[in-house]
Amino acid sequence: MNFLGEFQAVLIAGPTASGKSARAIELAREENGVVINADSMQVYRDLAILSARPDPEETKDTPHLLFGHIGAERNYSVGQWLEDAERALEEARRLRRLPIFVGGTGMYFKALLQGLSPIPMVPDEVRARIRDEYAGVAPALLHARLQQLDPQTAARLRPSDPQRLLRALEIFAASGAPLAALQGAREKPLLDAKMCQCRFIAPDRTELKRRIDARFDAMMAAGAIEEVRRLLARRLDPDLPAMRAVGVPGLAAYLRGDLSLEEAVQKGKRDSRQYARRQFTFARTQLPEFSWIAPEF
């Protein structure tokens, strides 16, 4: 089937280890496509192994965009990704190639198809002040503080998610307005869902658990510990997204001597399974444009 001209783009989402990257590469080869990353961890050049970023052998005959183009020191946002995605779309169209977005970050797909709320930029000095003020504060206390300032946003966020809690506190400090109030209006989306093929790969949960565990073992064999060692050597803010990527906290704890290697590996596998459950939930509740399909493995 010739997708180019019939669709604006193809969107392939799914939980971790569902085989979505292989599906995207196969389609790109068949349909003269360009693969565009929609995974919030595969943007980081420091996380080639633990983000399961496609390797050079897989990408040698197919253009790939927005993979490994950001340093771990960056607090890369959905808004920044959407700006990069717009440029990637323009590049795909210039090359007359089918844009194929693939990844596991539901917020990226939601922004593509539903638009993004016009959240004001947070000045660097405000971000630094908030990060200093709340450095070392437990996530539950961050949530309690946000509850005081912006109860509607606090109700939407998990008390165990310090990154999003800090983001909401930063926005309140910068704008004086609750994040929930700013999220009402949305800008025009980049893509029209009716003109896209949107698929969510939904494996059997038992098989997915097996694949997650096997893939984490493969990551360990490929050098995941050394990848985390290099990341720790940079002495970055532990609250940065790259420092909280699945697999990093457990292996960092092992390198500090706080966990055994077996405990770190089990934590990585457990965190991966929990992340997959959240990906299923987000797709079910936030991505109505997607049809669920079974994997081909």
How far apart the termini lie comes to 21 Å
- Strand coverage percent: 5-15%
Structural class: alpha/beta
How many distinct domains?
3
CATH H level, superfamily name of the largest domain: P-loop containing nucleotide triphosphate hydrolases
Task: Please name the CATH architecture of the largest domain.
Answer: 3-Layer(aba) Sandwich
What average pLDDT do the residues reach? Answer: 92
Uncertain runs: none
DSSP helix fraction: 40-55%
Count of helical regions: 13
What string, H for helix and E for strand, traces the elements in order?
Answer: EHEHEHEHHHHHHEHHHHE
Basic shape: globular
Reported by name, the CATH topology of the largest domain is Rossmann fold
The main sheet orders its strands as: 3-2-4-1-5-6
Cα-based radius of gyration, to the nearest Å: 19 Å
The largest sheet, given as strand count, sense and whether it forms a barrel, is: 6 strands, parallel
CATH class of the largest domain: Alpha Beta
| Secondary structure tally: strands | 6
